[in-house]
Amino acid sequence: MRVLQRCGMLVGTFALIFVGFLWFVRPWYLSWGATADEQQLALPGDEIVRDAGAQNTRAITIHAPADQIWPWLAQLGQDRGGFYSYRRLENLVGCEMPDPGMLLPEKQHWQLGDKLWMYPPEKASGQGFATLRAMVPGRALAFGTRMFGTESDDPEDGSWAFVLVPIDAGTTRLLVRGRGAEGRSLLGTAFDRSIFEPVHFAMERRMMTGLAGTVEGAPPSGLDDDLQILLWMTTFALIGVAKLLVVFQDEWRRPLAGFASSLVVFQVLTLAQPPVFVGALLVLGVVAVLWWPMRARGAPAHRDGATVAGGGTTTVV
């Protein structure tokens, strides 16, 4: 019975945090960096999915003219210059992603119908790609995609567009928009919102900041990326440890607080992607919640050479 009660507390805590995630965190990352006007702006590639049931628009300012950004953007792809994202994670799942550390002029040419490879062509039955459906040379690339559960021989029901919007001679906005057709199943919607969307955002955000840093002459540090991933893995492990402590340890309150804090910190680390030292402090905070020594309840207090316990006073000679 005690195990069932403790499991119920874990489920309830997870449910509360998940509701908070859907209510507050999801709207934030769906429009990360984008203004209200940019979210409503008609962009190249919107016509790929005309009656979209879902749309997200994200944006970042790059301190460079669009003409300087375009060559870096145009070499996106597993078979081109990579994706400027977490290469360690990409390669762990077999992407064999190249290092986007230099411009590759021979990899910057596109024609409608070309494939944006996200996985090696010889893997995943050759299905790890999106197809170029719209292009504005020097300004926009827009790809047709298939959403989770859509068969490879079914029509495309998603789009992924990259658009450069010049602001002035030395500043450009990079807008990244994803659209999906309406009519998703309940299972497909649940998968999208709980798994695909946050994972995709974590990688896409790193791609956008990585591209911006590369163009501006401050490419992302591979060491920093690896340390961030290590912090993610550590926090994920702490979630599991906290669950076990809640179920099997007599004192369950602190482990339950540690479980809740580790879930929140995991979201912060993967989605907000703070600097490594900030992330390390957050992880240490979770460790402190779980294991920081505390005086046992009911332990005697010592004052001025006397021990006070249970209302009586014993003088120490």
From the structure above, extract its key features.
disordered C terminus; alpha+beta; Alpha-D-Glucose-1,6-Bisphosphate, Chain A, domain 4; 3-stranded antiparallel β-sheet
Can you walk through the features of this model?
With 317 residues, this protein is of the alpha+beta class. It folds into two domains: 2-16 and 225-291, no CATH class; 33-219, Alpha-D-Glucose-1,6-Bisphosphate, Chain A, domain 4, CATH 3.30.530. The protein has helices at 2-30, 36-40, 66-74, 87-92, 186-215, 222-248, 253-272, 276-291; strands at residues 52-62, 115-117, 129-136, 140-145, 158-168, 171-181, 301-303, 306-309, 312-315. α1 (2-30) packs antiparallel against α6 (222-248), α1 (2-30) runs parallel beside α7 (253-272) and α3 (66-74) crosses α5 (186-215). It is globular.
Per-chain topology:
Elements lengths: L1 H29 L5 H5 L11 E11 L3 H9 L12 H6 L22 E3 L11 E8 L3 E6 L12 E11 L2 E11 L4 H30 L6 H27 L4 H20 L3 H16 L9 E3 L2 E4 L2 E4 L2
Antiparallel strand pairs: 1-6, 2-3, 3-4, 4-5, 5-6, 7-8, 8-9
Helix pairs in contact: 1-5, 1-6, 1-7, 3-5, 6-7, 6-8, 7-8
